[in-house]
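TL;DR need structure tokens for one chain.
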Amino acid sequence: MAKVMVVGVKTYSFNNDANQKVEGARVSYLTSIPSNKSNELGFLPLQSTVSLDVVNSLKEIPAIYDVNYDMVPGRNNKPEMIITGFEFLQSVDYLGLFE
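>> reply
TL;DR here they are.
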């Protein structure tokens, strides 16, 4: 499992062109590994699209979580990793950093 700091969640719900309901969320998080690209510095936020069930596993934000992953068939049946849940580890006093 990987540890991350979840810093935000944005949910969505809409009907697509085929009038099918599409629901989910985009989770923003930071890892403990800084970017190693030559034109980037520091810890850039990552984003993943997840189901609303996964969002329900988030106890509070911001906080440190272990991330649970699983593999599903992706393009051309190649394995694709998806986030299946978060396990709460500890709170983060983010706003306290600005006092």
